[in-house]
Specification:
Elements (H helix, E strand, L loop, with lengths): L10 E4 L3 E9 L2 E7 L9 H28 L1
Antiparallel strand pairs: 1-2, 2-3
């Protein structure tokens, strides 16, 4: 993990096309802005984990259904 110090209105660039800017700092909360191409998905981590879990559940459910259909033949 790379740890950086940034102040309000300072930014970092990732992979030449993603910019992360510090917009505001209030106590222990930091507001950031992310500029990225539309094809680059950006999620809060908790949302990303929920999406991954839903995808795993869907694959398992679809796989089980396909297995049941295969065994019926």
């Amino acid at each position: 993990m790379l740890a950086l110090s940034r102040k309000k209105n300072e930014a970092i660039i990732i992979n030449n096309n993603v910019e992360v800017t510090i917009l505001e700092v209030k106590g222990d909360q930091v507001k950031i802005g992310i500029t990225a191409p539309k094809e680059v998905p950006v999620y809060r981590k908790e949302v990303y984990l929920q999406i991954q879990e839903a995808n795993r559940d869907a694959v398992i459910a679809d796989g089980m259904e396909a297995l049941r259909n295969l065994l019926k033949k």
